[in-house]
Amino acid sequence: MKVINSVTEMQRTADELRAYGRKIGFVPTMGYLHDGHLSLVDEARKRADVVVMSVFVNPTQFAPTEDLTTYPRDIGRDLKLAEDRGVDIVFNPADKEMYPDEEFAFVEVERVSRLLEGEFRPTHFRGVASVVAKLFNIVKPHFAVFGQKDAQQAFVVRKMVRDLNFDVSIVVAPIVREEDGLAMSSRNVYLSETDRREATVLYRSLILARGLVREGTTDLVAVRSEMLKLISSGSKGKIDYIGFVNPETFERIEEIGKLDKALALLAVRFGKTRLIDNMYLEASRREI
Ligand code: AMP
C-alpha cells in the first residue's frame, strides 16, 4: 500500500492510473477507522481497479466551538487497517497541504445545507462540500463511496456533483452497526459506559418509528412524539432534532402522504458527544 501526502503527487499518480485505463474508486474519511469505514472499502473494491482512501480531518467543516482538536486520531492504526482491508493508496495530507492560503473558495449547496444538521452546524456542509470537491480534483476518482450513516452529507455531495457536473459517480453504502444497534462512529469512543449503554435508544427509537409507519401510521408528528418519549425516558441524551424528509428531495415532511418511504433522521447529545443516526421508514401498502 502506498501513502501519499502531497497533492501534486496524488494528482500525478491519478493521471498515470487513468492513462493505463485503471478505474479509481475513492473512499473519503476522517480516519480513526472502524468497520463502517472498512465496509466502504469493500464496496469500492467490488468495482474499482485501484482503491484510494483519504484520511483527513477537515478543519473547515468544524465550527470553532466544535471538537476539531479532540477528534480521535491514530494514523498508524488507520494505515494498518486500510492495508489489511485491501486499500491501494492512502492520501493523508497535512492541513497546510490542503489549505496553504488563509482565504479560499467554498462550495455552497443551497437549502439542504441549512436544515437538520445545518440548523445546528450552519457552516458544516459548506466545509464538507468544499473539501469533497477538492478531494475529487486531487484523487480524480471514477466513483466515490459514502456511508448512509451521514445521509444528509451523501445528499449534499450528490447534489453538488449534479449541479457542478463533476464526472464522478456516487455510491452510498448501508449503515454498519454494533451488535446492539448503535451506529458505528469514530466519536463512540468518547461515550462513558452509561452513555454508551443508553445510546442504543437512538436505534430503538428508529425501529419504533419504522414499526409505526409499517403498521399504517402516516402522521409523522405522532411518530416523532413516540420517539421523543422513548429517548427521554430511556436516556439522559439531549435531542438536537428528530426530523423526517422525502429521501428524493430532502424536503421536510410531517405526513407520509403518497410517498413509498420517508427518511427519519436524528441527532442526540450525550455529554459532549453528539451522535447522529437515520433509517428509512417504508409506508405500508394501502388498498385503494
Ligand atoms: P467520517 O470519517 O466520519 O467522516 O466518515 C467517512 C465515511 O464513512 C462517510 O461517508 C461516512 O458516512 C462513512 N461512515 C461512517 N460511519 C459509518 C457507519 N457506521 N456505517 C457506514 N458508513 C459509515
Please trace the helix and strand order, writing H or E for each element.
EHEHEHEHHHEHEHHHEEEE
Distance between the termini: 57 Å
Reading off the top of the CATH hierarchy, the class of the largest domain is best stated as: Alpha Beta
- How many separate structural domains? 2
Which architecture of the largest domain would the CATH scheme give at its second level? 3-Layer(aba) Sandwich
Shape designation: globular
Strands in their spatial order, largest beta sheet = 1-4-3-2-5-6
Strand content: 15-25%
Number of helices in the DSSP assignment: 10
Decide which structural class fits the backbone. Answer: alpha/beta
Task: Compose a concise summary of this entry.
38% of the residues lie in helices and 20% in strands. The protein has 288 residues and is α/β, with parallel strands linked by helices.
